[in-house]
Amino acid sequence: MRSENMPPMKINLPLLLLLSWLPAAAVFAVDTKPVAGRLQAGAATSNITPEIGGDIVGGFVPFPCTDIHDELHARCLVLDDGKTKVALVVCDLLGMHRSLCVEAKRLIQDATGIPASHVLISATHTHSAVNALGERVRGYHSDQPLTGYQTFVARRISDGVRRAIATLRPAEIGFGSVEVPEHVFNRRWFMRDGTVPPSPFGKMDRVKMNPPGGSADLMEPAGPTDPAVSFLAVREPGGRMISIFSAYSLHYVGGVSQGQISADYYGLYCEALKRLQAGAEQFPPFVALMANGTSGDINNINFRTPRKSLPPYEQMRYVANDVAKKVQEAVAAVEWKAEATLDARAQELPIQWRKVEPELLAWAKDVEAKVQDAAGKNSMTAVYSGRVQRLAQASPETKTPAQLIRIGDIAIGTSPCETFAETGLEFKTRSPFKHSFMVELANGYYGYLPTPRHFELGGYETWPGTNYLEPQASVKLMESLLGMARELAAQKP
Ligand SMILES: [Zn+2]
User: Fold this and answer.
1) Is there a contact between 449 and 467 (Cβ–Cβ < 8 Å)?
2) Which of 225, 296, 361, 452 has the most beta carbons within 10 angstroms of its beta carbon?
3) pLDDT at position 2, please?
4) Is-contact 400 473, C-beta < 8 A?
5) CA of 297 to the centre of ligand 1 (A)
6) Rounded to an integer, what distance in angstroms lies between the CA atom of residue 120 and that of residue 166?
7) Beta-carbon contacts of residue 462 (< 8 Å; ≥ 6 apart)
8) 166: which residues sit within 8 A by CB, 6+ positions away?
9) Measuring CA to CA, which residue among 53, 74, 44 is closest to residue 131?
């Protein structure tokens, strides 16, 4: 394992005298030499709000951003066990192309020595952000040139990690988990025979995504939810909270005003949790992070009752405040430890893109030939005809990223997809670590990841163009994560 220790800093008197004239932040850094075996932590945020005018990507068809409701951030937590550092970054974005993450990790490694394998970068899945997926709309590729905004985000992620390192200080760590079932609902439903509409491909699905709320045709959800908010909390020894990294399996909440940028409930949760901390405004400020767990089939809509309409931001604020309150209560039960072995593994998996059969491609070309006007181009059938044709020309390799971060007796497994709740639950059960959870939309974006069972059931998340990867992808990802977890668990604590 490569060490990222910097050579020990020699402190001399003239330097100290010079530093005594510098602002508090600079002097602060002098006290933070790594000490072997003692855990340190630092956290910082980096603003990634785009300019007004770009296209907001969360809708079925992009529309322009006309205002900013709340700022978007890359939220960064760095841990250092005296030998090894890991960086955890959560960005207020719908998703990030793999190439953006590769570039951010390159910048971080150049500036700090933390290798790419030890940096976890994920997106929250806020639907009110501009595009950081780059040229996805023009093709399915593992590598692509970055847009201006993607380049900006990569630099801001790297800046955030550097700023977090500048605040590294002795820390204690603890794991916690709290059940918050009331905000998560499985959105894929079995419905009465003949009531699931045909797919854009003219095929009959057995389940419907986002069915009409309260409909008499609803039978049962097609999968479970994962109601747990898993979190790791770090604080100054016996004192002020440094950061809480959390993950909850909730797709997003939504309900923004048209055209506004917002970090959705993820950002509001982080602010709410910060307000609950004593001394959160002191330097360095407390930083909360809310990563997305495994929520590809989970949202905030209770389908058993008709949907009520609320003023903008009301529901996301309600969810954010409630989850923050419950996590804060659970922090009181955390068992604090002054040491935690840090390690990480990363792999690029030989998973294939979803295969486009010749008859499907023929269907797509036929649809395209028949489209007449702008309204026809935006129809669901035409959009999928375009996606299928681009998927048929995908780059040879997916380079699907999988990563395992070990923090003491905690394992975080990652997926680059909108991953189903049952995958996250399986990882929690099968991982050899005492505490385990998954973070999705990590280190790249590769569409939805249904399990093989769900491919049989059909529905939106399984349609080619919504799903990019082969039907066995979730199984291969799980094997990779468990393999890396077993390898790291076998090493001494
Ligand atoms: Zn989604």
Assistant:
1) yes
2) 296
3) 38
4) yes
5) 9
6) 19
7) 205, 448, 450, 454, 455
8) 25, 29, 42, 44
9) 53
Residue labelled with tokens 């100290």: 16
* Ion ligand 1 contact residues with beta carbon within 5 A: 418
Separation of CA 57 and ligand 1 centre (Å): 11
The verdict on pTM exceeding 0.85 is yes
Please tell me the distance between residue 368's alpha carbon and the centre of ligand 1 in angstroms: 25
Task: Count Cα neighbours of 158 within 13 Å in the Cβ-side half-sphere.
Answer: 23
Residue with tokens 């000490």: 35
State pLDDT tens for residues 369-407.
Answer: 998 787 778 889 999 999 999 999 998 889 999 999 999
Angle between helices 358-370 and 380-391 (to 10 degrees): 130
Type of residue found at 269: Y
pLDDT at residue number 229:
98
Do residues 56 and 63 make contact, with C-beta atoms less than 8 angstroms apart? yes
User: Ligand 1 centroid to 97 CA: how many Å?
Assistant: 14
Radius of gyration of the chain from Cα atoms?
A: 23
Neighbour-count burial for 243-261, b at 16+ CB within 10 Å, e otherwise: bbbbbbbbbbbbbbeeebb
Residues of the chain with pLDDT under 70: 1-37, 135-139, 492-493
Is the backbone peptide bond immediately before 350 cis, with ω within 30 degrees of 0?
no
Alpha-helical segments (H) within 167-310: 264-275
